[in-house]
Prior knowledge:
It is a single chain. By secondary structure, this protein is of the alpha/beta class. The chain is 37% helix and 25% strand. The chain has a seven-stranded mixed β-sheet with strand order 3-2-1-4-5-7-6. Strand 1, helix 3 and strand 2 (62-67) form a beta-alpha-beta unit. Helix 1 (12-18) packs parallel to helix 4 (70-83), helix 6 runs antiparallel to helix 9 and helix 8 packs antiparallel against helix 9 (220-237). It starts with 11 loop residues before the first helix and ends with a strand.
Amino acid sequence: MTAQQPDFGLTASDYARHRAGFPVELLDRLAARGIARAHARVVDLGTGTGSLARLFAQSGCEVTGVDIAGPLIEQARRLDREAGVQIDYVERPAEATELPGGAFDVVSAGQCWHWFDRPAAAREVARLLVSGGAAVIAHFDWLPIAGNVVAATEEVILRHNPHWPYADRAGLYPQWLTDLQTAGFLDIETFSFDVMASYSHEAWVGRVRASAPIAGTLGDDAVRACSSELTAMLLESFPEDPLAVPHRVWVVTAKTA
């Protein structure tokens, strides 16, 4: 079942400015597995503002980013210019990219697989890859631990969007393995590691505002009310600035036959 996708185009500016991207260590760990070597041809599905795509490009890969949200692609291009990298972009759904089949060494999806029609997306990944090519599904999630700033933040989010289904998660996605197995992928492996991301109070409020359950879903007044409550909560309960916010990187890789 596909999750109801929010409109991330509404959050593009905050998303680009405040959301911490995947850590460089992710690419180091993929390279150790023979993935993302220099000059590899990479397609990054659901690329958003290009966080994962830029890591591949900075590692010397030839990268194409795919997303349905034009405003996010505009932000990605701006961030690419600032980073001094060149990435091609296609405004298309992940399930039907219209890119040539059998032409890419790696197809990645960062922080977005749950928004796709997963069986259709897995078939498209298989179609795009060369024989022996690698699929990479990655997540970079904040970690709610009792008493920490993430847990308190999720309480605020749920007061404003009580139907949000992704609270209190551990950043693990075993169901994605079944998606890949069903699509015929082999050599399926997972790995994870935890890191601390630094956020000022302003940036954390912006990062939450940019998230799916807030600006991606709610109206302007509700977004402002949530941001105001979160700002007050931080000042009262977590006055340290910047905040050290625990995150988990979780990855599944797989190969085509």
